[in-house]
Amino acid sequence: MAGAHLQNPLVFRIAHPTTPAHESGPMTEPTSTSAADPTSTGGGADLHIVDVTKRFASFTAVDDLTLTIPAGSFFALLGPSGCGKTTTLRMVAGLEEPSAGRIVIGSEDVTHRKPYQRPVNTVFQSYALFPHLDIFENVAFGLRRSKKKDVRNEVEAMLELVELSSFARRKPSQLSGGQQQRVAVARALINKPEVLLLDEPLGALDLKLRRQMQIEMKRIQTDVGITFVHVTHDQEEAMTMADTIAVMNAGRIEQMGAPIELYENPVTTFVANFLGQSNLIKGQLTGKSGGDALLEVQGQRMAMPTARVHSERDDVWVGVRPEKVQISRAGTPTDGENSIAGRVTDASYIGVSTQYLVQLPWGQEVGVFSQNLSTEGPLGTGDDVVLHWNPAHTFALDAAQDADAGAEKIEGDE
To answer: What CATH superfamily is the domain 279-398?
Structure first.
Protein backbone atom coordinates (compact mmCIF):
# COMPACT_ATOMS: atom_id res chain seq x y z
CA MET A 1 0.00 0.00 0.00
CA ALA A 2 1.40 3.41 -0.92
CA GLY A 3 1.07 6.14 1.69
CA ALA A 4 1.77 9.82 1.65
CA HIS A 5 5.47 10.54 1.53
CA LEU A 6 7.95 13.37 1.10
CA GLN A 7 8.56 13.89 -2.61
CA ASN A 8 11.86 15.81 -2.41
CA PRO A 9 13.32 16.50 1.03
CA LEU A 10 15.90 18.99 -0.29
CA VAL A 11 13.80 21.61 -2.08
CA PHE A 12 11.62 23.83 0.06
CA ARG A 13 9.71 27.09 -0.11
CA ILE A 14 8.06 28.71 2.89
CA ALA A 15 4.83 30.61 2.36
CA HIS A 16 5.05 34.29 3.21
CA PRO A 17 3.53 35.06 6.60
CA THR A 18 -0.13 36.03 6.37
CA THR A 19 0.24 38.41 9.31
CA PRO A 20 2.70 41.30 8.88
CA ALA A 21 5.74 40.72 11.07
CA HIS A 22 5.34 44.13 12.73
CA GLU A 23 1.88 43.34 14.08
CA SER A 24 1.66 41.85 17.56
CA GLY A 25 -2.08 41.19 17.54
CA PRO A 26 -5.41 42.13 15.98
CA MET A 27 -5.85 45.25 18.14
CA THR A 28 -2.32 46.58 17.60
CA GLU A 29 -1.66 49.39 15.16
CA PRO A 30 1.05 48.57 12.61
CA THR A 31 4.47 49.89 13.51
CA SER A 32 5.69 52.46 11.03
CA THR A 33 8.41 51.31 8.69
CA SER A 34 9.15 54.74 7.29
CA ALA A 35 12.64 56.14 7.03
CA ALA A 36 11.89 58.22 10.12
CA ASP A 37 11.84 55.09 12.25
CA PRO A 38 15.43 54.45 13.40
CA THR A 39 14.68 50.77 14.03
CA SER A 40 13.05 50.20 10.63
CA THR A 41 14.86 47.79 8.32
CA GLY A 42 12.49 48.05 5.39
CA GLY A 43 11.33 44.45 5.86
CA GLY A 44 14.50 42.68 4.76
CA ALA A 45 14.69 40.37 1.75
CA ASP A 46 14.13 36.78 0.73
CA LEU A 47 17.12 34.50 1.28
CA HIS A 48 17.68 31.90 -1.45
CA ILE A 49 20.08 28.98 -0.98
CA VAL A 50 20.29 27.31 -4.39
CA ASP A 51 21.84 23.85 -4.96
CA VAL A 52 24.47 24.55 -2.29
CA THR A 53 27.05 21.94 -1.37
CA LYS A 54 29.99 22.40 1.00
CA ARG A 55 32.82 19.88 1.15
CA PHE A 56 35.79 19.78 3.49
CA ALA A 57 38.23 17.39 1.77
CA SER A 58 36.30 14.11 1.57
CA PHE A 59 33.60 15.19 4.06
CA THR A 60 30.36 16.70 2.73
CA ALA A 61 29.00 19.07 5.38
CA VAL A 62 26.08 20.41 3.31
CA ASP A 63 24.67 18.24 0.53
CA ASP A 64 22.90 19.90 -2.44
CA LEU A 65 20.66 22.15 -0.34
CA THR A 66 17.98 24.31 -1.95
CA LEU A 67 15.94 26.52 0.35
CA THR A 68 14.04 29.81 0.16
CA ILE A 69 13.32 31.81 3.31
CA PRO A 70 10.96 34.75 2.74
CA ALA A 71 11.49 38.21 4.17
CA GLY A 72 10.08 38.67 7.64
CA SER A 73 10.40 35.02 8.70
CA PHE A 74 11.82 33.80 11.99
CA PHE A 75 13.46 30.65 10.64
CA ALA A 76 15.38 27.99 12.57
CA LEU A 77 17.92 25.46 11.35
CA LEU A 78 17.69 22.69 13.95
CA GLY A 79 19.85 19.61 14.25
CA PRO A 80 22.55 17.76 16.19
CA SER A 81 26.27 18.42 16.11
CA GLY A 82 27.77 17.94 12.66
CA CYS A 83 24.49 18.12 10.72
CA GLY A 84 25.59 21.12 8.61
CA LYS A 85 23.46 23.87 10.10
CA THR A 86 26.31 26.13 11.25
CA THR A 87 28.18 25.55 8.00
CA THR A 88 25.05 26.71 6.14
CA LEU A 89 24.86 29.84 8.28
CA ARG A 90 28.55 30.59 7.75
CA MET A 91 28.11 30.34 3.98
CA VAL A 92 25.25 32.85 4.13
CA ALA A 93 27.45 35.15 6.23
CA GLY A 94 30.38 34.83 3.81
CA LEU A 95 32.63 33.11 6.34
CA GLU A 96 32.70 29.96 4.20
CA GLU A 97 32.41 29.68 0.42
CA PRO A 98 30.19 26.98 -1.11
CA SER A 99 31.86 24.20 -3.06
CA ALA A 100 28.90 24.44 -5.42
CA GLY A 101 25.67 26.41 -5.69
CA ARG A 102 24.56 30.00 -5.12
CA ILE A 103 23.40 32.22 -2.26
CA VAL A 104 21.04 35.04 -3.22
CA ILE A 105 19.64 37.75 -0.94
CA GLY A 106 16.73 39.55 -2.55
CA SER A 107 17.82 39.71 -6.19
CA GLU A 108 21.55 39.97 -5.42
CA ASP A 109 23.87 36.99 -5.86
CA VAL A 110 26.25 37.23 -2.88
CA THR A 111 27.93 33.84 -3.27
CA HIS A 112 31.41 35.26 -3.77
CA ARG A 113 31.08 38.53 -1.87
CA LYS A 114 33.12 39.30 1.24
CA PRO A 115 31.22 39.26 4.53
CA TYR A 116 31.23 43.07 4.82
CA GLN A 117 29.74 43.34 1.32
CA ARG A 118 26.62 41.37 2.26
CA PRO A 119 23.41 42.83 3.75
CA VAL A 120 23.65 40.49 6.75
CA ASN A 121 24.87 40.67 10.32
CA THR A 122 25.62 37.80 12.68
CA VAL A 123 25.12 37.36 16.43
CA PHE A 124 27.32 34.61 17.87
CA GLN A 125 27.15 32.68 21.13
CA SER A 126 30.09 34.76 22.34
CA TYR A 127 28.72 38.28 22.05
CA ALA A 128 32.13 39.86 21.34
CA LEU A 129 31.21 43.19 22.94
CA PHE A 130 33.99 45.74 23.35
CA PRO A 131 34.78 45.71 27.09
CA HIS A 132 36.29 49.23 27.09
CA LEU A 133 33.22 50.83 25.48
CA ASP A 134 29.94 51.51 27.23
CA ILE A 135 26.70 50.06 25.91
CA PHE A 136 25.81 53.17 23.89
CA GLU A 137 29.15 53.11 22.09
CA ASN A 138 29.01 49.34 21.53
CA VAL A 139 25.70 49.76 19.73
CA ALA A 140 26.93 52.87 17.88
CA PHE A 141 30.14 51.21 16.70
CA GLY A 142 28.90 50.18 13.26
CA LEU A 143 27.40 53.59 12.53
CA ARG A 144 30.54 55.43 13.60
CA ARG A 145 32.67 53.09 11.49
CA SER A 146 30.57 54.04 8.46
CA LYS A 147 31.33 57.72 9.22
CA LYS A 148 27.78 58.58 10.23
CA LYS A 149 27.84 61.85 12.18
CA ASP A 150 24.60 61.93 14.15
CA VAL A 151 24.00 58.53 15.73
CA ARG A 152 22.20 59.48 18.95
CA ASN A 153 18.60 59.06 17.77
CA GLU A 154 19.26 55.69 16.14
CA VAL A 155 21.20 54.30 19.09
CA GLU A 156 18.63 55.48 21.62
CA ALA A 157 15.81 53.97 19.54
CA MET A 158 17.66 50.66 19.29
CA LEU A 159 18.36 50.58 23.04
CA GLU A 160 14.68 51.23 23.66
CA LEU A 161 13.80 48.35 21.33
CA VAL A 162 15.90 45.94 23.40
CA GLU A 163 14.74 47.58 26.66
CA LEU A 164 18.19 48.75 27.76
CA SER A 165 17.81 52.54 27.60
CA SER A 166 18.73 52.96 31.26
CA PHE A 167 21.95 50.95 30.79
CA ALA A 168 23.44 53.12 28.03
CA ARG A 169 26.47 54.26 30.03
CA ARG A 170 27.30 50.96 31.70
CA LYS A 171 30.12 48.70 30.56
CA PRO A 172 29.43 45.15 29.31
CA SER A 173 30.93 43.68 32.49
CA GLN A 174 28.17 45.40 34.49
CA LEU A 175 25.41 43.59 32.58
CA SER A 176 23.95 40.11 32.92
CA GLY A 177 24.38 37.52 30.19
CA GLY A 178 20.89 38.16 28.87
CA GLN A 179 21.46 41.91 28.77
CA GLN A 180 24.76 41.44 26.94
CA GLN A 181 22.96 39.25 24.43
CA ARG A 182 20.42 42.01 23.77
CA VAL A 183 23.25 44.52 23.28
CA ALA A 184 24.77 42.22 20.66
CA VAL A 185 21.41 42.02 18.87
CA ALA A 186 21.00 45.82 18.99
CA ARG A 187 24.51 46.32 17.61
CA ALA A 188 23.73 43.95 14.73
CA LEU A 189 20.31 45.42 13.95
CA ILE A 190 21.36 49.08 13.94
CA ASN A 191 23.18 48.54 10.64
CA LYS A 192 19.79 47.60 9.12
CA PRO A 193 20.70 44.19 7.70
CA GLU A 194 18.26 42.46 5.41
CA VAL A 195 18.96 39.16 7.20
CA LEU A 196 20.07 38.65 10.81
CA LEU A 197 21.96 35.42 11.44
CA LEU A 198 21.89 33.95 14.94
CA ASP A 199 24.48 31.26 15.72
CA GLU A 200 23.46 29.56 19.00
CA PRO A 201 23.00 33.02 20.58
CA LEU A 202 21.43 31.68 23.79
CA GLY A 203 23.84 28.80 24.34
CA ALA A 204 25.86 30.53 27.07
CA LEU A 205 22.82 31.37 29.23
CA ASP A 206 21.42 29.28 32.06
CA LEU A 207 18.09 27.50 31.52
CA LYS A 208 15.81 30.06 33.21
CA LEU A 209 17.39 33.03 31.45
CA ARG A 210 17.48 31.19 28.15
CA ARG A 211 13.71 30.66 28.30
CA GLN A 212 13.16 34.35 29.08
CA MET A 213 15.37 35.36 26.16
CA GLN A 214 13.53 33.06 23.76
CA ILE A 215 10.42 35.18 24.28
CA GLU A 216 12.43 38.39 24.15
CA MET A 217 14.12 37.48 20.87
CA LYS A 218 10.78 36.67 19.29
CA ARG A 219 9.43 40.05 20.43
CA ILE A 220 12.40 41.87 18.91
CA GLN A 221 12.01 40.03 15.60
CA THR A 222 8.30 40.84 15.52
CA ASP A 223 9.03 44.52 16.19
CA VAL A 224 11.70 44.96 13.51
CA GLY A 225 10.09 42.60 11.00
CA ILE A 226 13.23 41.36 9.23
CA THR A 227 14.38 37.86 8.43
CA PHE A 228 15.98 36.06 11.37
CA VAL A 229 17.85 32.81 10.63
CA HIS A 230 18.57 31.00 13.88
CA VAL A 231 20.87 27.99 14.25
CA THR A 232 20.32 25.78 17.30
CA HIS A 233 20.48 22.21 18.57
CA ASP A 234 17.82 22.97 21.21
CA GLN A 235 14.39 21.68 20.16
CA GLU A 236 12.45 23.75 22.70
CA GLU A 237 14.30 26.89 21.65
CA ALA A 238 13.49 26.36 17.98
CA MET A 239 9.84 25.59 18.64
CA THR A 240 9.39 28.59 20.96
CA MET A 241 10.98 31.16 18.67
CA ALA A 242 10.64 30.10 15.03
CA ASP A 243 7.74 30.39 12.62
CA THR A 244 9.35 27.68 10.50
CA ILE A 245 11.89 24.98 11.41
CA ALA A 246 14.12 22.96 9.10
CA VAL A 247 15.40 19.80 10.81
CA MET A 248 18.84 18.98 9.41
CA ASN A 249 20.66 15.66 9.43
CA ALA A 250 23.89 14.74 7.65
CA GLY A 251 23.91 17.88 5.51
CA ARG A 252 20.31 17.55 4.33
CA ILE A 253 16.91 18.74 5.47
CA GLU A 254 14.78 15.87 6.76
CA GLN A 255 11.61 17.92 7.14
CA MET A 256 10.61 21.57 7.21
CA GLY A 257 7.46 23.32 8.40
CA ALA A 258 5.74 25.01 11.31
CA PRO A 259 6.70 23.63 14.75
CA ILE A 260 3.28 22.06 15.27
CA GLU A 261 3.45 20.34 11.89
CA LEU A 262 6.87 18.80 12.55
CA TYR A 263 5.97 17.66 16.05
CA GLU A 264 2.49 16.31 15.36
CA ASN A 265 3.20 14.74 11.96
CA PRO A 266 6.88 13.79 11.51
CA VAL A 267 7.79 12.18 8.18
CA THR A 268 11.00 10.37 9.20
CA THR A 269 12.16 8.49 12.28
CA PHE A 270 14.94 11.06 12.74
CA VAL A 271 12.43 13.92 13.06
CA ALA A 272 10.12 11.83 15.25
CA ASN A 273 12.94 11.11 17.71
CA PHE A 274 14.93 14.35 17.55
CA LEU A 275 11.96 16.68 17.99
CA GLY A 276 10.59 15.32 21.26
CA GLN A 277 10.09 11.62 21.96
CA SER A 278 8.16 8.97 20.05
CA ASN A 279 7.04 5.41 20.55
CA LEU A 280 7.70 3.45 17.35
CA ILE A 281 6.17 -0.01 17.07
CA LYS A 282 6.54 -2.42 14.13
CA GLY A 283 3.34 -2.83 12.13
CA GLN A 284 1.89 -3.46 8.67
CA LEU A 285 -0.46 -1.46 6.48
CA THR A 286 -3.30 -3.77 5.49
CA GLY A 287 -5.72 -1.59 3.51
CA LYS A 288 -7.93 1.49 3.52
CA SER A 289 -11.38 2.40 4.78
CA GLY A 290 -12.60 5.78 3.65
CA GLY A 291 -9.97 8.32 4.66
CA ASP A 292 -8.27 5.93 7.09
CA ALA A 293 -5.38 3.55 6.67
CA LEU A 294 -5.80 0.18 8.37
CA LEU A 295 -2.96 -1.37 10.36
CA GLU A 296 -2.04 -4.55 12.10
CA VAL A 297 0.35 -4.40 15.07
CA GLN A 298 1.31 -7.78 16.54
CA GLY A 299 -2.16 -9.12 15.75
CA GLN A 300 -3.93 -5.98 17.01
CA ARG A 301 -5.98 -4.01 14.47
CA MET A 302 -5.57 -0.24 14.39
CA ALA A 303 -6.48 2.70 12.17
CA MET A 304 -5.09 6.14 11.38
CA PRO A 305 -5.61 8.98 8.88
CA THR A 306 -4.13 8.16 5.48
CA ALA A 307 -2.55 11.63 5.36
CA ARG A 308 -0.32 10.66 8.30
CA VAL A 309 1.21 7.66 6.48
CA HIS A 310 4.72 8.49 5.24
CA SER A 311 5.80 5.25 3.63
CA GLU A 312 5.50 3.60 0.24
CA ARG A 313 5.99 0.20 1.88
CA ASP A 314 3.50 -1.87 3.84
CA ASP A 315 6.02 -2.51 6.63
CA VAL A 316 5.95 0.59 8.85
CA TRP A 317 6.85 2.01 12.20
CA VAL A 318 3.56 2.88 13.90
CA GLY A 319 4.26 6.02 15.92
CA VAL A 320 2.56 7.88 18.76
CA ARG A 321 3.90 10.52 21.15
CA PRO A 322 4.09 9.47 24.84
CA GLU A 323 1.80 12.29 26.02
CA LYS A 324 -0.91 11.25 23.52
CA VAL A 325 -1.22 7.81 25.12
CA GLN A 326 -3.74 7.12 27.90
CA ILE A 327 -2.94 4.41 30.43
CA SER A 328 -5.69 2.47 32.20
CA ARG A 329 -5.98 -0.67 34.23
CA ALA A 330 -6.38 -3.86 32.21
CA GLY A 331 -9.97 -4.48 31.18
CA THR A 332 -10.89 -0.82 30.69
CA PRO A 333 -13.06 -0.39 27.54
CA THR A 334 -11.26 1.42 24.69
CA ASP A 335 -13.97 1.53 22.01
CA GLY A 336 -12.95 3.46 18.88
CA GLU A 337 -9.35 3.91 19.99
CA ASN A 338 -6.09 2.23 19.08
CA SER A 339 -5.10 0.06 22.01
CA ILE A 340 -2.55 -2.47 23.16
CA ALA A 341 -1.96 -4.38 26.41
CA GLY A 342 1.12 -4.09 28.57
CA ARG A 343 2.64 -4.19 32.06
CA VAL A 344 4.15 -1.27 33.96
CA THR A 345 7.90 -1.68 34.49
CA ASP A 346 8.63 1.78 35.89
CA ALA A 347 6.62 4.75 37.19
CA SER A 348 8.22 8.13 37.94
CA TYR A 349 5.96 10.63 39.68
CA ILE A 350 7.09 14.19 38.87
CA GLY A 351 4.18 16.24 40.17
CA VAL A 352 2.38 17.50 37.09
CA SER A 353 2.60 14.07 35.46
CA THR A 354 3.74 10.50 35.91
CA GLN A 355 6.12 9.03 33.38
CA TYR A 356 5.62 5.32 32.81
CA LEU A 357 7.60 2.63 31.06
CA VAL A 358 5.30 -0.14 29.88
CA GLN A 359 6.46 -3.51 28.52
CA LEU A 360 4.40 -4.82 25.63
CA PRO A 361 3.68 -8.55 25.22
CA TRP A 362 6.61 -9.08 22.81
CA GLY A 363 9.11 -7.40 25.16
CA GLN A 364 9.37 -3.86 23.73
CA GLU A 365 9.10 -1.00 26.22
CA VAL A 366 7.22 2.20 25.39
CA GLY A 367 6.81 5.47 27.26
CA VAL A 368 3.64 7.13 28.53
CA PHE A 369 3.42 10.65 29.99
CA SER A 370 0.21 10.73 32.01
CA GLN A 371 -1.06 13.98 33.52
CA ASN A 372 -1.95 13.63 37.19
CA LEU A 373 -5.60 14.67 37.10
CA SER A 374 -6.79 12.80 40.21
CA THR A 375 -5.67 12.60 43.82
CA GLU A 376 -5.23 8.84 43.56
CA GLY A 377 -1.68 7.57 43.36
CA PRO A 378 -0.16 6.48 40.07
CA LEU A 379 -0.22 2.93 38.80
CA GLY A 380 2.55 0.77 40.20
CA THR A 381 5.30 -1.41 38.81
CA GLY A 382 3.89 -4.77 37.75
CA ASP A 383 0.34 -3.52 37.13
CA ASP A 384 -1.34 -4.90 34.02
CA VAL A 385 -2.60 -2.04 31.87
CA VAL A 386 -4.06 -1.14 28.52
CA LEU A 387 -2.57 1.70 26.49
CA HIS A 388 -5.01 3.52 24.22
CA TRP A 389 -4.99 6.62 22.05
CA ASN A 390 -6.95 8.50 19.41
CA PRO A 391 -6.24 7.06 15.93
CA ALA A 392 -5.76 10.66 14.69
CA HIS A 393 -2.62 10.90 16.85
CA THR A 394 -0.98 7.96 15.07
CA PHE A 395 1.64 8.36 12.33
CA ALA A 396 3.34 5.72 10.19
CA LEU A 397 6.93 5.81 8.91
CA ASP A 398 8.95 3.59 6.60
CA ALA A 399 10.17 0.56 8.57
CA ALA A 400 13.38 0.56 6.51
CA GLN A 401 14.43 3.64 8.51
CA ASP A 402 16.38 3.26 11.75
CA ALA A 403 13.93 3.37 14.66
CA ASP A 404 16.61 4.97 16.86
CA ALA A 405 17.65 7.69 14.38
CA GLY A 406 17.81 11.08 16.09
CA ALA A 407 17.15 9.63 19.54
CA GLU A 408 20.53 10.58 20.99
CA LYS A 409 20.77 14.36 21.00
CA ILE A 410 24.28 15.72 21.40
CA GLU A 411 24.98 19.06 23.06
CA GLY A 412 26.94 21.61 21.05
CA ASP A 413 27.35 22.26 17.36
CA GLU A 414 29.77 21.74 14.52
So the answer is: Nucleic acid-binding proteins (2.40.50.140)
